[in-house]
Amino acid sequence: MKFEILKITRHQDDKTVKVRWRIRGISALKVMLNFWKIKLWNYKEVLEDNQETWYDGFSTFYLGNDGLIARHVLDKVNHLYAI
Questions:
Q1: Which end of the chain is more exposed for a tag (fewer CB within 10 A), N or C?
Q2: Which helix (H) or strand (E) segment is 28 a member of?
Q3: For residue range 16-53, what is the model confidence (pLDDT) as tens digits?
Q4: Please, which residues bridge with residue 9 across strands?
Q5: How is the chain split among helix, strand and coil, in percent rounded to 5?
């Protein structure tokens, strides 16, 4: 699994930080069904062959007066499969 931050923006007017992110990887089921094809030691090659699944999401972090995260809202998650 690989976690990627695609974009981060800070908004002073409503004290929020907005993050667009993606989690990429190969599902355990796909590894079990295709274990003879997937060489985990050569992970980059497997990803290039479109064997991966990913989740795209958008999170909003609301900051308190102390500057720490007071609340996290997960606005959207898209689950995408490679074909």
A1: C
A2: helix 28-33
A3: 999 999 988 776 666 556 555 555 555 555 555 555 67
A4: 18
A5: 20, 55, 30
